[in-house]
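Exercise (ungraded).
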Amino acid sequence: MNQLLIMEKQLKAVSDANRLKLLASLKNGEVCVCDLVEILQVSQPAVSQQLRKLKEADIILERKKGTWKHYRLNDIQAPYIQTIIDELEPISIHNCACTIEEGEV
Amino acid sequence: MNQLLIMEKQLKAVSDANRLKLLASLKNGEVCVCDLVEILQVSQPAVSQQLRKLKEADIILERKKGTWKHYRLNDIQAPYIQTIIDELEPISIHNCACTIEEGEV
DNA sequence: TTAATATATAAGAATATAATTATATAGTAA
DNA sequence: TTACTATATAATTATATTCTTATATATTAA
């Protein structure tokens, strides 16, 4: 894919307030979907769809852990995406069952 | 306006291949609308509307010169917008009447 | 196995986006 | 003034986006 089109896809992925909040929520590490639903205050499928969009742009990665799915920022980001992430005020997560179980409190 | 919403607005403004091309075309300095129409290969009103979107996001500035209007990049950019601009391969303009008249060849 | 839980996908509706054509505006030239 | 040119705005249309509800899938627990 053309460089400009890759850029367009990635920028489209981050040009939405809810998806920016998702990125802000991932700045401190992995978070499960249930927590993100609480933060965004929209339905679970809506969050799932937003996450997919970020994933398809290679901005976030997922890890399956039982029935839970943890999302995290990709370590490798295009410079223009990294700068966006850097600018975001982190949103801190009140840890849910899934993370407590792993002793990640 | 909330920081996140400003970011959203600016990122929406640049998350389009044609508007990225407009920014790439402005990297070497002021360009008039007629040149930009040639580059994008869309109608003049379409270009005008895209330019407005970039202008409303404070990413570009305009200068009126007779019937022509010259657009240029704003010197002051949010870091995440500047990084995007830096990443763009400049598009060079085959100078049109308006710039030649000013001896800017 | 069945039930419960976490997440994903599908379908549909409301809204937003980005193009087009037609028209308006504003400046210059005759 | 009238005609011409460059650009902007309006109206319309096609498409994309983003939400919702309903349903499917996959894992764990009983």
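Further reading is listed at the end of the chapter. For now, observe: Chain A has one domain: 3-101. Chain A touches chain B at residues 3-5, 7-8, 11-12, 14-17, 20-21, 78-80, 83-84, 86-89 (CB under 8 Å).
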